[in-house]
Design goal:
- About 45% of the residues lie in helices and about 20% in strands.
- The strands form 2 sheets. Strands 2-1-3-4-5-11 form a 6-stranded parallel sheet. The protein has a 6-stranded mixed sheet with strand order 7-6-8-9-10-12, with helices on both faces.
- Helix 12 links the parallel strand 9 and strand 10.
- The longest helix has 16 residues.
- It is elongated, with a radius of gyration of 25 Å.
- The mean pLDDT is about 85.
Length: about 350
């Protein structure tokens, strides 16, 4: 297909190429009627500006920044890979990229790095908002400077974010609930296990728990199962086996526990603990294709993993900034990724993607 040019739009609308150029770049005086005619032609002819040529002509380097946890938390390896893969694609357009990292449970370093980003005045930012209670002031600085930001993995609605890329946490919790509802008998007990920091449960984990609870409250016949929640502070290296045994000991009839829902990717800790305390008949659902999770999925200690597409989260976040800032395109406010249900029968398909 021949590439549509400014001259084609000018010929189609009966105006000069200079007028079309002024409309495209939003400069100079153009009547409202003419502007509308040109914009309609651009849409009809599917005109795409030559971004690379424009970038080379301007010789301006744009800088994107990303704030995310360090790779010592294994989940965050894939989003970082996605961020960098996207950057390598758009680098020829004059885009620079810098990562700002922080230890997953370190609130002070998260805040310090976010402030470092705001002070450096990038052209766009990707944020994994692990500590939502620290966001308001730095985000206000970004907004005051006209710097767009994209949330990745966790959504925080009390802000003017450009876009969110990740799962619908509430719906993902409902999916987990349905899986366990199918697996366990009527009257069974279910544990919701939250791994939390000393400051509490992250907002997306709360949303998963809420979605899980909403399912059992709203689905006909599902409300006959008893649900208990354990919030386990594991910032300090505690023995998960002892922790789980302790909490099971607090339950009047621990043998009636027939299912456990772990709201994040650390489900392998619970699988290890159940193996050690010889609890073989508890159905287990958690998140993400970490190596330890995959091992337990293959040996049937974990029954289901819910995939979050972490690589795609990073990749789409950078591309979203590029589309909005460089290509001047409208981007979706929320980009919810598929909620994948992964079992030992289909795990190889996901590993080979």
């Amino acid at each position: 297909m021949t590439k549509v040019t400014i001259l084609d739009i000018a010929e189609h609308t009966g105006v000069s190429a200079g007028t079309v150029d002024r409309v495209i770049h939003n400069r100079g005086e153009v009547s409202l009627k003419t502007r509308e005619k040109v914009l309609q032609a651009i849409k009809k002819l599917n005109y795409e500006p030559d971004i690379l040529a424009r970038s080379l002509a301007s010789r301006k380097t744009l800088r994107f920044a990303a704030l995310l946890p360090e790779g010592s938390n294994p989940f965050w390896i894939k989003p970082a890979e996605g961020l960098n893969a996207a950057w390598r694609e758009i680098k020829p357009f004059g885009i620079a990229f810098e990562e700002y990292r922080f230890p997953y449970y370190h609130k002070t370093k998260f805040y310090r790095q976010l402030n470092a980003i705001t002070e450096s005045k990038p052209d766009g930012v990707v944020i994994a908002p692990v500590f939502t209670d620290l966001l308001q002031e730095p985000l206000q600085k970004l907004e005051d400077s006209g710097i767009p930001y994209v949330f990745m993995n966790t959504q925080w609605e009390n802000s003017n974010y450009l876009s969110f890329v990740g799962q619908d946490s509430m719906q993902s919790g409902r999916v987990a609930a349905r899986l366990l509802d199918y697996c366990i008998p009527e009257g069974g007990q279910i544990l919701i296990f939250n791994f939390i920091s000393s400051k509490g449960v992250n907002s997306h984990l709360q949303s998963r728990e809420q979605g899980f609870m909403d399912y059992f409250m709203s689905e006909p016949g599902a409300g006959k199962k008893k649900i208990l929640t354990i919030n386990a502070n594991t910032q300090i290296n505690k023995d998960i086996e002892d922790l789980l045994s302790y909490h099971l000991g607090l339950i009047s009839n621990p043998d009636e526990i027939t299912g456990i829902f772990v709201t994040n990717s650390r489900v392998f800790h619970i699988a290890n603990a159940l193996e050690k305390i010889k609890q073989a008949n508890i159905r287990l659902v958690g998140y993400d294709l970490l190596d330890e999770n995959i091992r337990h999925l293959r040996n049937s200690r974990i029954d289901f993993l819910i995939g979050q597409k972490p690589f795609e989260q990073g990749y789409k976040s950078i591309i979203t900034l590029f589309n909005a800032i460089v290509r001047k395109k409208e981007v979706p406010e929320n980009q919810f990724l598929p909620i994948d249900i992964i079992t030992k029968e289909n795990i190889d398909f996901y590993l080979n993607l």
